[in-house]
Specification:
By secondary structure, this protein is of the alpha/beta class. The protein has helices at about 1-10, 50-55, 55-65, 70-75, 90-100, 115-130, 140-150, 180-190; strands spanning about 15-20, 25-30, 80-85, 100-105, 110-115, 160-165, 170-175, 175, 195-200, 205.
């Protein structure tokens, strides 16, 4: 485990896969090293009555993870994996739902790489830089893209707003139900290629109006 910690620190990474001839056996991460006897963070001894009614196997496993010097005792064995052709959307969902920071990539059962949250952050930065490059588009195509994008969203509460575009400046008309909805449409328009500015003339929808 000391060698594993050295690898994590020297390479600036948060986890390493454990393999045998390329076959994935498990993974050791920073999370597996934060509850260790050496630094005084191992789980504390439980009272005798908790030990009496507790799960002995689970207690023993906790002791192994916090005291053993061997990877086989400390590594996490149940590891989520992806294939090399797995869409990035699925990988992001997998990381989020399992609350994990990285996932090994397999080809024919062999580990060929790792995709981490940091990789997705780098992809995000690269995509934002590309999207912010100056782009000229005609006004009608900008308007059509905004309206088409709105049809795929579930948060608009008042139907399609009035949208006009002139020289890349988007003007919005109509009403909105919440401040979050107002901002969401502004972001949608802002992220549309070719938009230079947004002029928002929408008004809040008073839900108390006409209620008896």
């Amino acid at each position: 485990m000391e060698e594993v910690a050295d690898i994590l620190l020297s390479h600036g990474i948060s986890a390493v896969p454990v393999t045998d001839r390329g076959v994935l056996l498990g993974i050791v991460s920073e999370g597996d090293l934060i509850r260790r006897a050496e630094i005084g963070t191992a789980p504390q001894h439980r009272s005798w009555w908790l030990r009496l009614f507790g799960n002995n196997a689970a207690l023993a496993e906790g002791y192994l993870k916090s005291h053993s010097a061997h990877v086989t005792d400390v590594m996490t064995r149940q590891v989520a994996t992806v294939a090399e052709n797995t869409p990035v959307m699925e990988i992001a969902t997998l990381l989020e739902h399992n609350r994990i920071k990285r996932v090994p990539v397999l080809r024919d059962g062999q580990v060929i790489g790792v995709v981490s949250r940091a990789n997705l952050v780098r992809a995000f930065v690269a995509a934002r830089k590309r999207s912010r490059a100056p782009v000229w588009r005609n006004d009608s195509s900008i308007r059509s893209e905004i309206l088409d994008a709105l049809r795929f969203e579930s948060w608009p509460s008042t139907g399609s707003p009035g949208v006009t575009v002139s020289n890349g400046v988007v003007t919005l008309w109509g009403a909105y139900l919440s401040e979050q909805e107002r901002k969401a449409l502004l972001i949608l328009a802002e992220n549309t290629a070719g938009v230079r500015a947004i002029d928002d003339h929408r008004i809040p929808l008073d839900m108390t109006y006409g209620v008896v």
